[in-house]
Amino acid sequence: MRPPTDRDELVSRARDLAGRPLSELATGLGLPVPVDLRRDKGWIGQLVERALGATGGPRELCDFPHLGVELKTIPVDGGGRPRESTWVCVAPLDGSLARSWDRSRVCRKLARVLWVPIRGEGPPGERVVDRPRLWRPTAAQEARLRADWEALAELIELGEWWQLTARHGQVLQVRPKAASSRELVWVLDEEASWVRTNPRGFYLRRSFTAEVLATRG
Questions:
Q1: Which one-letter DSSP state was computed for residue 134?
Q2: Which domain holds residue 24?
Q3: Is 188 among the domain residues?
Q4: All residues at 6 or more sequence positions from 130 whose CB lies less than 8 Å from its CB, including other chains
Q5: Closest among 67, 112, 110 to 87, alpha carbons compared
Q6: Looking at the domain assignment, is residue 81 inside a domain?
Q7: pLDDT single digits (tens) 58-103
Q8: Is there a contact between 203 and 172 (Cβ–Cβ < 8 Å)?
Q9: CA atoms within 13 A on the CB side of 115
């Protein structure tokens, strides 16, 4: 699938997917459908990326860099409410965190997002694409994201990342991000010493993404 030429074409493609089971999308793209997602956790996102013509690229960039749009598939229940928090990007603990919100990876990733809800909890192929939503944070939403990021970033910069729990942050949180507890990375602690810990990531809370999805664009 070639990349969409503009945002209108991207949204049109996403709307054309609404109501279609994932097995149908996979068949059309010649891709196998996994029995479950235990070993294929990224399958749904990768499938929708292929179906929409995402180009991807370095982690610093969004999925459609020429359009400035990030793609987020999000599992929802029968009422269209998010079933889990949403991964945004890596939370670097090695001293490479941006010095300001405006320069942060979180800010870039969330500048404009195409949300593609996925309904269903059964086998991956039976899950269905729901109506997409192209979203840009309102001034009030960005202010809440900025406030959380700055509070979280302060602890990370001080090397006190170990104090962060899922309770920190009203709309944005930092949580472990690893395939298993055995996955470790080198990070700086509060004494500027290198230690090993599980990688962390920035996540959006379900309550925030529910708010976003409830406002139709």
A1: E
A2: 7-214
A3: yes
A4: 18, 76, 80, 116, 117, 118, 119
A5: 110
A6: yes
A7: 566 789 999 999 999 999 999 999 999 999 998 888 878 898 999 9
A8: yes
A9: 30
Residue 130 belongs to a domain? yes
CA separation for the pair 105, 17 (Å, rounded): 29
Domain containing 88 — which CATH number? 3.40.600.10
Residue 74's nearest CA partner among 21, 141, 131 is 131
The answer to the question of residue 143 being in a domain is: yes
Number of domains in the chain: 1
pLDDT tens track for 112-160: 999 999 999 899 999 999 999 999 999 999 999 999 999 999 988 887 7
Whole-number Å distance between alpha carbons of 53 and 58: 16
Q: What tokens does 133 get?
A: 């939503």
